[in-house]
Amino acid sequence: MSHRVKNIITNTLLTICGVVVATVIGEIALGIGLPYFEPVSIRVEENDPVLRPDPVLGHVIVPWSYDGDNDARGFKNRAALEQAEVVALGDSQTYGPLIGSDGMDTSWPAELSRIASTSVYNMGVLGYGAGQYSALLDKAF
């Protein structure tokens, strides 16, 4: 075997080992650190008509049906779907505009639903982050 081929094999093996070691260290760091991340919390005032405190998610949107703004689960959808082709988890960018003529139909999940002609369930909530997305995955599936 030539010296050049040996160098290629050695470099490839070292790269693979480096990636594996970095992945293991990253997984260990996330396993140790992730449970300590506090959910992003928006301050919820007493008797807030829109938000209520939640022990797992920090806060949730109170379900209401004023002009069909939110579904029965408190997410910005016309109806609480039991099944959807796409589920959108996110923060205020996913939730969509708070005010406007028809904020429900101007969120990006609603636009995706129209463009792709498929069902999209918007699970975006203002102030949510990675901790909340992780907690919502079971509900999303």
Features:
141 residues; alpha+beta; two-stranded antiparallel sheet; two-stranded parallel sheet; 39% helix
Task: Describe the main β-sheet briefly.
Answer: 2 strands, antiparallel
- Poorly predicted runs of 5 or more residues: none
Termini separation: 52 Å
Rg, Å, rounded: 22 Å
Secondary-structure element string: HEEEHHEH
Strand order within the widest sheet? Answer: 1-2
The total of beta strands comes to 4
As a percent range, the share of helical residues equals: 25-40%
Inertia-based shape: elongated
Summarize this entry quickly.
The protein is α+β, with helices and mostly antiparallel strands and 141 residues long.
Topology at a glance:
Elements (H helix, E strand, L loop, with lengths): L2 H31 L17 E4 L3 E4 L24 E5 L1 H4 L12 H9 L3 E5 L5 H11 L1
What does this structure look like?
- The mean pLDDT is 82.
- The N and C termini lie far apart (52 Å).
- 39% of the residues lie in helices and 13% in strands.
- It is built from four helices and four strands; from the N terminus they run αβββααβα.
- The strands form two sheets. A two-stranded antiparallel ribbon has the order 1-2.
- It is elongated, with a radius of gyration of 22 Å.
- It has helices at 3-33, 92-95, 108-116, 130-140, and strands at 51-54, 58-61, 86-90, 120-124.
- The protein is α+β, with helices and mostly antiparallel strands.
